[in-house]
Design brief:
Length: 399
């Protein structure tokens, strides 16, 4: 029973434990009992970090790069990130427009803490990576959920943003390529979004952590749309395309005045990212082009293998899926709500995936599952086959 000693702060009331983690923990228990579980639940690459990056970290440690660095990150890494962003967008980034963060997660947190507070509304298109909502609630601001539609490939519709805007809208979250659907936004929609936001006080938090992982699409950086640049904070990082999720490094980039404000939060939270890790990240940006291309090609192969199997059945529908390493599958209500369905798939078919409910509060998420195809192509084939066979068996048995 909760006593006054253990009572959490009120702002934690709606911060619930991650459902993704719960599935992962149960999968580990089944494996300990000897089951062969196919892992589609965790959104991280299965590759090792490129060797050259590990060597750079070891060298930095040996050289004594073990002390505090500047609050905003080392100048070398800020420059390297500025160059990287510039090369991808055709824009010019200066060092003071870049803040090195503890993963993209911290970049999201800093941006929301710096600009959103009580009374402010944040538009979160759903389904969405759950950390946006949590950060908004921790900031005592108000999340406003905007449903993305499967019929529209889960792409953000600027007209629906217009209908959702109020004078209190302080921030609009954009995530392209998108977790959990893999949807990728094109330039036309972003230009329309610029028009919708013109004259408002709404910033754009553009989470582009999957920017390098696009397949049948082209990634357009939101800040590359000139009418959005002054209001856009871009989030990126090393976790996905560089296979460096455990290194905990990312960035927040944008107009100087916005980045400087976010730095005020950082000064009194995490102080600075680890110095030797930042040294290694400079090498990651400058010397891993070939490894990143190889990993991207492997993701493309897995995606194609999964889509090929899914094309031969009609129980699960897939839309979006042009980028990141996710497939967001929807299905008919008769199979039951996704929490129960995901639990059943894990127990009976030993396929671990995440229920749509982890990504948003609307009814559409109740009948959806996220597949993360960040595992071997053989596992992808076997897992998707098991998933389909399990559902087909349910149909046949009338369950
Ligand atoms: N943004 C999105 C859309 C994600 O899916 C994730 C991780 O799953 C992150 C940010 C977090 O990245 P990091 O590990 O760099 O904090």
């Amino acid at each position: 029973m909760m006593s006054s000693l253990t009572e959490p702060a009120e702002r934690l009331a709606e911060i619930v434990p991650s459902r993704i983690r719960a599935i992962f923990d149960r999968a580990a228990e089944l494996e300990a009992e000897g089951a062969h579980v196919l892992h589609f639940e965790i959104g991280r690459p299965d590759f090792d970090t490129p060797r050259v990056v590990k060597d750079a970290a070891a060298d930095a440690l040996a050289a004594g790069r073990v002390h505090y660095g500047p609050n905003a990150g080392t100048p070398e890494l800020r420059d390297a990130i500025a160059d990287h962003l510039g090369a991808a967008s055709g824009l010019t980034y200066e060092r003071d427009q870049v803040l090195v963060t503890i993963g993209a997660s911290e970049a999201v947190f800093l941006a929301i803490m710096a600009f959103c507070g009580p009374g402010d509304e944040v538009i979160i298109p759903v389904p969405a990576w759950p950390a946006y909502e949590a950060a908004v609630r921790l900031a005592d601001a108000t999340p406003v959920f905007l449903p993305l539609r499967a019929s529209d490939g889960y792409r953000l519709d600027p007209e629906r943003v217009r209908q959702t805007l109020t004078p209190r809208t302080r921030l609009v979250v954009v995530c392209s390529p998108h977790n959990p659907t893999g949807a990728v936004l094109d330039a036309e929609r972003l230009v329309a979004l610029a028009d919708v936001l013109h004259g408002t006080r709404a910033l754009v938090l553009s989470d582009e952590i999957y920017s390098e992982l696009v397949y049948d699409a082209v990634h357009v950086p939101v800040a590359a749309v000139s009418d959005l640049r002054e209001r856009t904070l871009t989030v990126g990082g090393f976790a996905k395309a560089f296979a460096m999720d455990g290194w905990r490094l990312g960035w927040l980039a944008g107009p100087r005045a916005l980045v400087t404000t976010a730095l005020r939060v950082r000064q009194f939270t995490t102080t600075c990212p680890p110095t030797f890790v930042q040294d290694a990240a400079v090498v990651a940006l400058r010397e891993t082009t070939d490894e990143r291309a190889r990993m991207r090609a492997a993701f493309a192969e897995r995606r194609a293998a999964a889509l090929e199997i899914l094309a031969r059945q009609s129980i699960f529908q897939v839309a979006g899926a042009d980028g990141a390493f996710y497939l967001y599958l929807t299905y008919a209500e008769r199979f039951g709500a996704s929490d129960g369905f995901a639990a059943q798939l894990l127990e009976e078919a030993h396929v671990a995936l995440v229920s749509g409910t982890a990504f948003g509060p609307t009814r559409a998420e109740d009948y959806a599952l996220r597949v993360s195809y960040a595992c071997s192509v053989d596992d992808v084939r076997e897992g998707i086959t098991r998933l389909v066979q399990h559902a087909e068996a349910m149909v046949l048995s009338g369950r």
